[in-house]
Fold these 4 entries.
Entry 1:
Amino acid sequence: MKEQTREHQLVMAAKGGDEDAFAALVRLYEKRVFALAVRMCGSREDAAEAAQEAFLAAWQGLSFFRGDASFSTWLYRLTSNACVDLLRREGRHRSAAGPSLDDEGLSLDVPDTALSPQDEAERQELREAIDRGLAALSPEHRQILILREMHQLSYDEIAEALSLDAGTVKSRISRARRQLRNFLLKDGNFSPPAASKATGKEG
Amino acid sequence: MKHCEEFAALLDPYLDGELSPEDAARVREHLAGCDRCRAYVQAALAIRDAFPAAEDVEVPEGFADGVMAAVRADSLRQKRRRTRWAKRLAPLVACCAVVVLAVSLLPQLQRNTAVSPAQDAAETALLDEGDASAAIENDSGAQVPAQQDLDPSAKQALPSPSDSEEGAGQTSPADVPDSSASAPEAEAVSPEAAEREAILAPYSVQSTPSLTLTAEEAGDLLSGFAPAEETEDGLLYELTAAEYSDLLGRLEQEGLTVAGAATAEEAAAAGGAMVLVVPS
Ligand SMILES: [Zn+2]
């Protein structure tokens, strides 16, 4: 709550041309913006460029930012656009490395692949595998999973950030998640099944 | 499992907290008895648990400073651009003034092929815009003769947008109630032509397909774009034809019709369009 008020104050001040307030916003969001950009662009150099463009676009467009979408959602949208622009501009269409995940032969018959990493080392291993899996996804699928799982946007916010309708958000998330899961299954990164009781909690 | 198909589409919204409590309860119930769906949910939760965190990313050193340097450089550039923009408008106005002239003089041109004097006049007029308003004053008193004679002082009134309206007024029956009486011959400008002119005039500044929106109308439709220029009137966006067409579609969805908007076809023909967003 307090964080939100502070953010709102900074946004209002920056809207009025206060560069220091904008600098504070940059520091507040640089990690989240850069984290999205680095996975969208594929390299830290490109990510830095795209992230800078996104912030610059935010500064330039701030006077027209109405504030009914959240500032962060808007910023992620600018970041996504900057990454797409950069890749397009440079003709750097990174073809997905690794196995193709586009086939929907979902190996749903894999029995109980429950995975709950026992310790931090395992989690770290899985995290690296997820990063490889994300890199193998199409940009659209990668982007939407990052916004959902890393930035924890709701479906509405994602729809807003990516200019998609609600139905597309839902189906794209589902496809993206299934593809990532398939990658991890093939990658052999799921740890052995844990107790197969329902993990019905949403997080 | 036939049952699963019903639930397949609910699993992701369930995981993402997007279901109503009732639907979530139904999913939970299904999960208790279905290994396959449960495996999916557990895998997804494990992915979430280990998902890379934004906090873990290392932002390049000096990144924020670099952004702020770019921001300040941009602010400076914008200030310079504002003056440049004014200069850039002038030739556009000149060229459109000629268009307006050509339309309003069409009947006369058939008799009097004085195209280049008209152009010259329009261009000259631009150079001393300061005199233009004075010219209007003079002008309204002597509209009809000025038109007939292609008097340069008449054309001087044309170049700026407000002047153009004045130009349209020259042949508007409303502004010149007894024009038909005073100059029946000169009234070769048909009512249709006058109307066309009146339509032309307000948009005469726009040689590139363009659209002007208030910030309120624009909402955040343009929030994904960086403005090409910040002018004194507002932010100017340069869109590709496809982006422009998309924007028109969205405006329509919101039930907004904007007078004078260039069509998608015009934008396609010109390879893009400009959108000016003015404060509401
Ligand atoms: Zn099931």
Note: Helices of chain A lie at 2-15, 19-41, 44-61, 71-89, 120-136, 139-150, 155-162, 166-187.
Entry 2:
Amino acid sequence: MSINLSAASFSYLLPKGRVIKAIQPTTLSIQPGEFVAVIGANGSGKSTLAKLLNGLLLPTNGEVLIDGHNTKDADNKVFARRRVGLVFQNPDNQLTATIVEDDVAFGPENLGLPPEEIRARVDRALKTVGMTEHKDEDPHNLSAGQRQKIAVAGILAMEPKYLVMDEPTSMLDPVGRRAILETLSELRQKSSIGIVYITHIIEETVEADRILVMTEGKIIANGPPREILTDESLMESASLYMTRPTDLARRLAKQGIPVSKDIITVEEVVKELCSLK
Amino acid sequence: MLIEIEDVSYTYLAGSEAANSAVSNASLTIDRGEFIALIGPTGSGKSTLAQVLAGLLKPSFGKVIYEGSDIWEEPKLLAKRRSLTGLVFQEPEKQLFEMTVEEDIAFWPKNLGLGPKEITTRAMSALSAVGLDYEQYKDRSPFTLSGGEMRRVAIAGILVMNPKVLIVDEPTVGLDHRGRTGLMDKIQKLNQGGTAIVFVSHDMDTVAEYAQRVVLINEGSIIQDSSPREVFRNKEMLNKVGLDVPVATEIGARLREVGYHIAPGPISVSELETGILATRGEIKR
Ligand SMILES: Nc1ncnc2c1ncn2[C@@H]1O[C@H](COP(=O)(O)OP(=O)(O)O)[C@@H](O)[C@H]1O
Ligand SMILES: Nc1ncnc2c1ncn2[C@@H]1O[C@H](COP(=O)(O)OP(=O)(O)O)[C@@H](O)[C@H]1O
Ligand SMILES: [Mg+2]
Ligand SMILES: [Mg+2]
């Protein structure tokens, strides 16, 4: 059981025969229970990779298998969408209904669940993202950040086995962002959900099991957060930034204060300085 | 004073069952050359207030005054007065619609009846202000650009009107690190050239880095209007409304808790670094 890309590539075909190679041949596996963060510059192929993972795009060459089911096989389309929930980078691509709770219920309804179960899931998902009080409103009348929360709730309510989230917190305030990340960590403890989490906010990746770094359609690094986030030349070459705790630790080390250069979180920097006191 | 808003309220769908009061009794002044951050949790009314400031939404109550005159008093003069401000919407890609970058940027100046020569001069300078080369970009379709480039073209389309107040609504969302710092540095340059900036954001670290003044809005009401340092002093209140302090402020506060004698309230990493180095005597080697 896993999502497997084997030498999968993807090219967008443009008018006049132009081709954009968005994903170079890539071999990759996502296991249930894993939290895999994906970082990389704009245009590096993150969103295209996300859409390959749930079969929304089919690889130009190579294969994508979701728990053994090839996404190229038309019979597997429904299976793929149910097994792999995708939160789009732009929530407006996802919102369909004119009432918030109907929108969130859309996915579970398509799964053919009994009404009580749908009700319970919708209520839970709305509570998770803090939008219960807006459940009767029209999503089109909500602020952009609120629409993003609804889009996340809609996918959570499907309780997919794999969750692919494309910059799901980009428009949220810090507390809303933390709530989503806490929800994901609870989900991982309760179930064996596999999560692929795309973000530009490097601080959100420090608790991932591993991080994939993308540039120009290639995964150029794949490893645990501490290894990736403290690799200055890697981060620089991928147009990424070091987290502020890492930045601080390095500045202090340069000034002769004996702190480890491998720090990635606020807790770690405080703990180290505390032990020097 | 460039802009004053007095006791402004805005209600969406007023009179209907779904009426939603998004801004209430807000008063605010914007002066020449200021760099103001407008912060608040998701749904607090930032985008609504930004549109009221830009003269695009007519307040349900209260006044919007540009350089001394009430812009909604004489609707005929509205368009002319409105050109004092320029608003770059949240998700400005949605605003781009012309076939080429040049046409897109020329849209509003054309509408105002400016001549082609004047428009070209302005378009060149607007594109260069956001760091894009006129010759290289003018014939491109906006839809083939990267997210960061589109965002810059959208800003150029506003700058071409030479606004004295530039309002940018979450301009860095979705941009990578290079795009974000590039854009913020461009906005800062405009500010140094005299343009007043209203920067709407959820990113406290960026706010700390660039803003001179912070306006905090919660549930439609302005609850604080002071220096970044002052606003970021109150972590508890910020957390309560859904926001946070910058990372450097957080680390500084934790270090004080464990007994480091560093100055309170650093808001940037370099300030925090200086503060920690000043306590060298307290650190074991
Ligand atoms: N629908 C599309 N048509 C043509 N090219 C596209 C399309 N979507 C993305 N691309 C191109 O594919 C490349 C990868 O884009 P994307 O996967 O969106 O990157 P990211 O999510 O990392 O910003 C970019 O060069 C982008 O311009
Ligand atoms: N077009 C609209 N119609 C009705 N209500 C709206 C509309 N746009 C925003 N609102 C409501 O106004 C409030 C403030 O929204 P907004 O100004 O977009 O907040 P922010 O930008 O701080 O996230 C929210 O409760 C939102 O639901
Ligand atoms: Mg993307
Ligand atoms: Mg907004």
Note: The beta strands of chain A are 3-13, 19-30, 35-40, 61-66, 69-70, 84-87, 162-166, 194-198, 210-215, 218-223.
Entry 3:
Amino acid sequence: MLLINCPYCGERDQSEFTNGGEAHVARPKDPDQVNDREWSEYVFVRANPKGIYYERWVHTHGCKKWFNAIRDTSTDEILKIYKIGETPPLIKRFKNTLRSPSGEPDVGSGNFTVKKP
Amino acid sequence: MSEHKIYFKFDGKTYGGNEGDTIAAALLRNNVKLVGRSFKYHRPRGIYTCGIEEPNALVQIINEHNEPNVRATVKKIYEGMVVKSQNRWPSLKRDLGSINNILSPIFSAGFYYKTFMGPKGFWKNVYEPLIRRTAGLGKPPREFRSKSIHLHHNVDIVIVGGGFSGLLAAKKLAGTNYDVLLIEREDSLGGILKNTKKIELINDQNPSDWIEKTERLIQNSRNIKVLKNTLMTTYNFSDHLIAVEDKSVGKPQDNEKPELVLHKIRTKQTILANGHIERFISFRNNDLPGVMLAASFEKYIQKYGVVPEESPVIFTNNSSTFSLVKSLVDLGHKPKAYVDVRDQKKIEKETVELLNKYNIPLYAKSEIEGCEGKNEISKVSIRVKKNEIIKIKTSMLCVSGGFNPDIHLFTQSKGLLKWDETILAFKPEKTFQNTITLGSVSGNFSYEKLIGEINKKLDFFEGINDLEIKLNINGPKKFQIKELWETNHAKKSLWSKSFIDLQNDVTTKDLKQAVLEGFNRIEHLKRFTTNSMGTDQGKISSINALGIVSKILKKSVSEVGTTIYRPPYAPLSFSAIAGRSTYEFYDPERKTPVHPWHVKHNAVFEDVGQWKRPWYFKKHNNESMEQAVQRESKQVRESAGILDGSTLGKIEIKGKDALAFVNLIYTNSFTKMKPMTARYALMLGEDGMVKDDGIVCKINDQHFLTTTTTGGAANVLAHMEEYAQTEWPNMNVYMNSITEQFSTFNISGPKARTIMSRVFNNIDFSNESFPFMTFNNFDYLNTKVRILRASFTGEPGYEIYVSPKHALTLWERIFYYSKDLDLVPYGTETMHLLRAEKGYIIVGQDTDGTVTPIDLNLNWMIGKKKKDFIGKRSLTRSDIVRSDRKQLVGLVPLNKAYGIEEGQHVIEEKNLNTPIKKPVKMLGHVTSSYFSPTLNHSVAMALIKGGNRKIGSQLYVSTSDLNVIPVEVVKPNFIDPKNERLIS
Ligand SMILES: [Zn+2]
């Protein structure tokens, strides 16, 4: 279970929070001016990267405030938490903090052993 | 060891054991070896180990609500305990299921998968009844009320394991500023120091004295808390660990106190000092009662003072069995034979000297070929040369196939492993979290090197000093092993089997067969053969399986790889997980202030979300639900009815931008709406689908009150908050749930106005001064009420909002004033019927998240002139404007005597041939259907493709007995289509 640092309440267990999907997906300012494709991309399409991801969280069983987080989806490490309205930090800043298990399986699942001595 | 005898029952017979004995120790004390039957073949099984890793000795504790699959090697006895063996019928010694053993060819690898493939009818008639009767372990427990609790910890360091390494780590950390939690799964600290003869002296003291002194030091340090009888089950992400503590070890469960405590631990650093597990070797009939792991055998002697057998045969491939021989000869016993697969020259000189000294026959470069016996071992076969087998009579065989570092928790933490050729085992290689491994779990099997390892690995903690320790070690100082997973099987008979997984009855032959059938990936092989999928997760055997498979595939074990170890480390009772969240504490029950009145008037309740809502009121005990609903709804239309609507979600919206916000949240336009009026409103998702509905009351442009469906209240508020905070953070708008601040009653029916005029005799309820969809606040007695003219039944109706404190009084007064007016209290079922007669939808029943307002013909609710609202743009997407989308229509059966069933398909076919041979075109389904007592026939609503164009035509609805009934498609408004009654 992740430990999430709510910018308003401090560190709390993940079970108090709800994930709100990708962050910074802007709602078109004038929805009537975008075509079907652009609109449906806003409504339905979200990135699902392995690695660094900007996402939204809400402290559902707490202050009920929404905020943004940068999480590495391959390690589940939360690298940064910032409030709504704050400028999102650049992805470049986080490149070197990846701590993904180096021996992740090359075939199939679950072979969590180091291959090369 | 206390000599106080404790008496308990096993399979109806009373046995005596010592205080502190596990069930297994006590049974061995009484020379009981047969304790269970195996999973598939019903073979006799005994006690194989002395701890959590036990695959065989699983029992059921009858006096603890039949708790099944309890490890006899862990559970301690107490006076009056009643224990039963599992999976045997009719009795342990004469088990009819063991016929499966003879049928074993059909139970081979992939058996379960293959049964699904035929021959036809075999599953239903042969396999399933057979499997259900004979397979499986314990029977389910009886229902009981769990008293378990959850505890949370926030610490700096967790030490898992209070053995030698764990104690040394704790000693180092004692008195520092770190908050430390030491978790030990047994009832005492010391581990290997207590279970073996491996270490003679520590700093010239007896190990037991050293343990006592160290424990006192830890206790006096004040920064270390020790939890005994506590099993670490889970190592999650973010250094979050879960351990379960057994509070009733060695005593019956207390009726008042919690039996289990689930510890949820957050730590900064985890020290794994959880040791190792001995593994077995596969040979012919290696499952017979009497076969036991060597270190377990020694633990029974050292920890429990039980000698399971004074002269067993010992079979090993490594140096560790020295201490078992030492334990036995120190007590004056003598092993019958010592069989070592290694060459004489390779066997440690300490061992050879000890064997020679006591005249114990050593069979070097030999192996156990197999063993024989009926319900337990009677003799073992030793292959002394390639073609020479000698037989020795014995009742017990101690086996050591080497040791695995107990890497289960380490891999749960996502740490990486590496195969170590010197110890022939996987050991931790790379940590993923803040994990330190110490001692044998790290692959260090040398006690001399232990203190150096600990000093080095814990060096970075602040304020700790190097420890020095002097050890006198018995026997070989270095761990040495020769690879041996399975010995050659000489005898061929159906009964002769060489097992790789004792709990799931998987043989080494099954492994070979699975590889032959193409399951050569270890994860596939595991699932196909069910190897290591039992409750023990193959703790003594899964690495052996890798060894055998690697030999077949001619690959290294490292290349074959391990399967993933998943939490929990060992099974834990559901009651520990549930904690106090059972029965009425599972989920809050919400009751309205009028609830006691409903109970008194025979309401039958329905759960709506967490709310208890009256479903219908029983007039007398023999009245059925159907009769009650027909009576209630008829009475509403003929005179008047009252519904407790207090459960409806209520949200207050305030702020300078409240109007703009409400305009964005709902489809309707609220700009031109006059203050103190109300509107039925729809809420969409951004995809244009109906999300919720309710009534929006406008007090003024800065202040609105909205209602939501009972089940949708929390979601609607969350939806509003999300948009207010993330999309329009600059809007000045605030929302608050006021669901529980107001109780709500709905009074509707032709006599509603009369009732209201009597209860509130100073208010003018005439149509002119109190028109439809308006509301106002009034003083009433010493409180205030808000009254809204609205209706969900199609009859004239009023909604009263009152403070919960006054709700019950007001409710009773309404009945007092309506004595002669035939007012009926009604429940949700009647409400559903009445609204269906009017074609009013219920979100979640007539909609399912794929329905737009256009599909519902609610276009009039869409504020088309509004520039934007949530979901607006989606309503013009090409898929949404298709004319052949499913649309909401009404259905009336042509033959008025027929009823329409909810959920049935709407089709064009006149007949359904049974059995149905070709696909039937489905137009849609019936979403709501009721028998209308007012119309005297069934009325239904349905979502059907291109429904609007089908109005007036004839279609068919399937029935649950595979018939069809003809229906006419109509507009979904069955009573008073012009709404004359509604606004009268
Ligand atoms: Zn918070």
Note: Chain B has a mean pLDDT of 92.
Entry 4:
Amino acid sequence: MSEDVYIIGAGETKFGELWERSLRELAVEAGLKAVENAGVYSKDIQVLYGSNSLAGTINAQNDIGSLIADFSGIASNHIPAIRIEASSASGAAAVREAYLAIKSGEYDCVMVGAVEKMTDLYGPEMLDHVSTLLDREWEAFFGATPAAMAALTARKYMHDFNVEKENIMAIPISDHRNASMNPDAHFRNKLTMETAMGATMISEPLNMMDCAPMSDGAAALVIASGSFMKRNRLNGVRILSSGISQDFLALHSRNSIYTMDSTVLAARQAMEKAGLKHKDMSFLEIHDSYSIYGITAIEDLGFAKKGKAAEVIQSGIDINSALPINPSGGLKAKGYPIGAAGVSQFVEAVLQLTEKAGQRQIKDARYGMMHSIAGTGSTSLVHIVGGE
Amino acid sequence: MGKLSSVWREADHRYRLVAHKCGNCGRVYFPPRDICPVCHRDSIGKMTEQELAGTGSIVSYTVVHDAPMAFSRQKPYIIALIELDEGPVITGQIVDSDPSEVDFGKRVHSVFRRIREDGKGGIIEYGYKFVVD
Ligand SMILES: [Zn+2]
């Protein structure tokens, strides 16, 4: 029997344009918060998985695992400290590696430290770096950006399913409402449909309010085996299952431009392994780097038939509804530090499942589903947390 | 970003739309692939070059307003997914066309154009774009 896996500590920085904070400072702050929250000591950490997507190009810094371990003061512990990279799914991928490391029986207590420092660059120069999430030679080379690829999906989706732009914009509006109750969020302002629809165009039909911001931020987790947790009389939130699936790198090579097969398969794996049904989920944290990806996620995760996500949204996705989506504020409003976003979803899950989410607390939260994608969906991860 | 070696390495593919055809199943791949994702090892050594006609139709399209550095002088520009008549779907720009003509299913053909300029005095890279028929 493999070990059960628990998140025993979680911490994050505020997300936003944090001009005065460096990559390493952010990582260390989140890490220390997670360790303190867990009630363990740094000597208990047996391995560190650093998660980051773009520091190699934005900050000219690689080897993020060593950087985090070093400035967290644990270099002389000589534990393994390596970076896990899967573009915008890096965070969830690092959590999965931690989960597997404990499941395998090799380790008892693992740290996941995720960080992205994006505001060291800005504007068009930044777009060159963010476009490395695509296929450089056959997408980005021709002037495609991540927003342009999402826009291709949005336009075809709206056409084929006769969906209005307002139905898609409902996701960012809901995100902003939830983020207004999250002190760590990049944006705390509520968004009206009128303001959202009138925002600066980015890539038609997507405007600035359809696109998650470039945020600085870090998030960290301490993940441990059930036996470590009990031995040290600690508490935790269980990671019930982890699903992952991969697809063609470029959107043009895939079966569909508005169904992410990788998300469909990852969700199926996670649900089967957890032995749960969709109606058991108390909340979802979905990867809405672009509003349309929030729509397709609702469908591909199995909560609506293709083309019908708007019906789910109409029946309610706020924190008091039957299916709260992105109680944290999501990527759009909590923020999108690319390599840290996936880990910060788990920070929210821990808050919700331990009834510490304050104003945005979901009543009787029992199970949460976390969804992350790389780029336009070349890799998807789905995790289910909660239960006993 | 772009280095000279990567410019000439892909020249045939980008200048003349040279695809790879699987000798095992007959599927055509663009961008070219050394291994057929359907036939796997049965395709090894059987991928042959085939020049595409450059004709196809629009699957989806967008007008890009927020552009990377190498494209800032071109914006706004149209990026589209084009389904080529030989089968592959590819990503590229649509140029020299009345925007009201750009729509789902519209027929297009390829043209050879300047794609990107990497900074002042940097290298200029060429390749295919598409024009509405
Ligand atoms: Zn084949």
Note: Chain B touches chain A through 36 residues (CB under 8 Å).
